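Thread title: Can someone regenerate the structure for this chain?

I was given the following input by a collaborator and told the matching structure tokens would be attached. They weren't. Posting the sequence so someone can regenerate them.
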Amino acid sequence: MSVVDRASKPQTHSLDNRRRFAASHWLARLLSPDVIAPLLVGGLVLILWEVGVRVTNTPPYLLPGPLLVGQTLIQEWSVLFPSLLITFKITLVAFIAAVISDAGLARQRHERDGDEPSLAAFR
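Best answer:
Regenerated them for you:
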């Protein structure tokens, strides 16, 4: 088959092949060391934390184990969720205020110095 024949023939990739490739690509990324390593380290830290609390018989009011933290989070969800929403709203408002004030400061500096705001760090 010549180059001309290949160019004139339409590509016949099936949707199933593309879905299979996307699924395998997603799975390969999920199983990559960039994802697995932090999960293993985090799991190891949680296990060591729980074992350390149990072995030393540390009272929960000093250092609760991760299992107790999870159980309490589930049991007290109706009390904690409204507080979570308030914290989220405060964080969102603070972030918006920071973006607006930073944009204003960058504009002032740009007008004053006449250089690009992104280049200000290289002075």
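The chain has a mean pLDDT of 82.
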